[in-house]
Amino acid sequence: MSEKQAIFTLMGGRVRMHRGRYNPTSDAVWLAAFAPRGMIKVLDVGIGTGGASLCVMANNPGTELTGLDISPEMLDECAQNAILNEHSVELINTDITTWRTTRTFDLVITNPPYFRGTPAKHNAHHNADITTWTRRCIARIRPRGYICIIISPDRITDVLGAMAGHCGDTEILPLFGGNPHMAERVLIRARVGTRGGARIWSGLPMNYPPILRDGLTIDDVLTRLGWI
């Protein structure tokens, strides 16, 4: 395989990835784009091969990134991708639903295993209890820290139900694919221990170049659009 084929990029070339058993999709870029700036200690739950984490680090120099995954193979590839991008990442082979720790973080990002059915060959986590997954993520966030999650629309009730009573200042952003009238993914960002209400944005197309090509954050885009 040639060098060109072996390496692909995200965020217009700002993040480089080895082509491997699982190659991040646009979901990883969108998740990272919703992460608020200024977060130092960041936990990526289900880090996989590191796509979302490396995008977060591209937008936030100085981030101290910790990643969890149940797949040693994924973590091995993630470590190589971190080296490729000249980043240092702490990787832990564990399951968020059983991880025993007192550590907390400024931000937790996660693209949870919301898909059901037969596990894929790349050994990703499938058929998880999304309510438990979300609650365990929230437990790892310091007071007034953030959680950012990308999920399929049919699982948002699991996520919001787990956040109830624990999170406030919730922001929901639908992402539209082939059907412009029905969301294909939903981004949710909330703050732990606050009491602010929810905002639902009108949504963006999943192939939106300012995010995928130019590597802007969603806050940057909403500001440019005059929505905030």
State the main characteristics.
nine-stranded mixed β-sheet, 8 helices, 11 strands, 228 residues
Helices and strands in order:
Layout: H1 3-6, E1 7-10, E2 15-18, H2 26-33, E3 41-45, H3 51-59, E4 64-69, H4 72-84, E5 89-93, E6 105-110, H5 130-139, E7 141-151, H6 156-163, E8 167-176, E9 183-192, E10 199-200, E11 204-205, H7 209-212, H8 218-224
Parallel strand pairs: 3-4, 3-6, 4-5, 6-7, 8-10, 8-11
Antiparallel strand pairs: 1-2, 7-9, 8-9
Helix pairs in contact: 2-3, 5-6
Protein name: Methyltransferase
Domain Methyltransferase small: 37-126
InterPro entries: DNA_methylase_N6_adenine_CS, SAM-dependent_MTases_sf, Small_mtfrase_dom, tRNA_Adenine-N(6)_MTase
Notes on the structure:
This protein has helices at residues 3-6, 26-33, 51-59, 72-84, 130-139, 156-163, 209-212, 218-224, and strands at residues 7-10, 15-18, 41-45, 64-69, 89-93, 105-110, 141-151, 167-176, 183-192, 199-200, 204-205. With 228 residues, the protein is an alpha/beta fold. Helix 2 (26-33) packs parallel to helix 3 (51-59) and helix 5 packs parallel to helix 6 (156-163).
Compact description:
This protein is an alpha/beta fold. It is built from 8 helices and 11 strands. This is Methyltransferase.
**Helix-strand pattern:** HEEHEHEHEEHEHEEEEHH
Kindly report how far apart the N and C termini lie.
Answer: 46 Å
Mean pLDDT: 92
Biggest sheet architecture: 9 strands, mixed
Strand content: 25-35%
Which segments are poorly predicted (pLDDT under 50) over 5 or more consecutive residues? none
By DSSP (H or I, 4+ residues per run), the number of helices equals 8
**Rg estimate, integer Å:** 16 Å
The overall strand count is 11
The secondary structure category is: alpha/beta
The residue fraction in helices comes out at: 25-40%
Approximate shape: globular
